[in-house]
From TrEMBL:
It comes from Cupriavidus necator (strain ATCC 17699 / DSM 428 / KCTC 22496 / NCIMB 10442 / H16 / Stanier 337). This is Tol-Pal system protein TolQ. Part of the Tol-Pal system, which plays a role in outer membrane invagination during cell division and is important for maintaining outer membrane integrity. Its main location: membrane. Keywords: Cell cycle, Cell division, Cell inner membrane, Cell membrane, Membrane, Transmembrane, Transmembrane helix. Residues 87-212 form the MotA/TolQ/ExbB proton channel domain.
């Protein structure tokens, strides 16, 4: 007589549906975290790409040797379409012009422009770095949340064996498989978040260096005009 092979549906959906309520709650939490994470990943990608394009465009216009007053007027008149670097320039140039109208000395002119640009720089960096802490949190916490769901599921699987006279692999495998789904979902949420966080943090650091370099070079230009 041939042995009877018992087949059991081990699809992901079936495993999730047969998991305990706590394990399902953990999986739902991880899926929500993953959904928000992917939303922020795509939004941050578009924001950083736009910031790079606008920065490169303004640097070309600035170093083309045009009139600073004309650049400032353009930035003021098109404030809704300006990039981060252009807004930093606008803040510094505007404060420089105001201080010069008040008849301040050269040192005071440069200090006013420096403070204005530093404040604008910090505002722009806060915008660029928004949602990065969330990605970092998802990347670091999701595996542990998934592991918690896995541990709880394995505990339930072994607890169920207490009511079985003869424990076999077929009896314990579904419970363990259900538990491991939580870890898999945790890794699914964590890995993209970690990759995106590292990449975007590096891109933001590069933009910050470009902003700071521009500020120093622009202050040198203002220093020559303040004499």
């Amino acid at each position: 007589m041939n042995p009877v092979t018992v087949t059991q549906d081990m699809s992901i959906v079936t495993l999730v549906l047969h998991a305990s309520l706590l394990a399902q709650a953990v999986m739902a939490l991880l899926l929500v975290m993953s959904l928000f994470s992917w939303t922020y990943i795509f939004r941050k990608h578009l924001a950083l790409r736009s910031a790079r394009t606008q920065t490169e465009g303004f640097e070309r216009d600035f170093w083309a040797g045009g009139d600073l007053q004309a650049l400032y007027n353009s930035a003021v008149n098109n404030r809704h379409n300006t990039g981060a670097l252009e807004r930093i320039f606008e803040s510094g140039m505007g404060e420089f012009l105001k201080a010069r109208e008040r008849g301040n000395e050269a040192g005071a002119l440069l200090d006013a422009a420096r403070r204005a640009m530093r404040a604008a720089y910090q505002r722009e960096m806060d915008v660029l770095e928004s949602h990065l802490p969330f990605l970092a949190s998802v990347g670091s916490v999701s595996p542990y949340i998934g592991l918690f769901g896995t541990v709880w599921g394995i505990m339930n699987a072994f607890r169920g064996l207490s009511n079985v006279q003869q424990a076999t692999l077929a009896s314990v495998a579904p419970g363990i498989a259900e538990a491991l789904v939580a870890t898999a979902i945790g890794l699914f949420a964590a890995i993209p978040a970690v990759i995106a966080y590292n990449r975007y943090a590096t891109e933001i650091d590069r933009l910050a260096i470009r902003f700071e370099s521009f500020m120093e070079e622009f202050l040198n230009i203002l220093q020559r005009q303040a004499r």
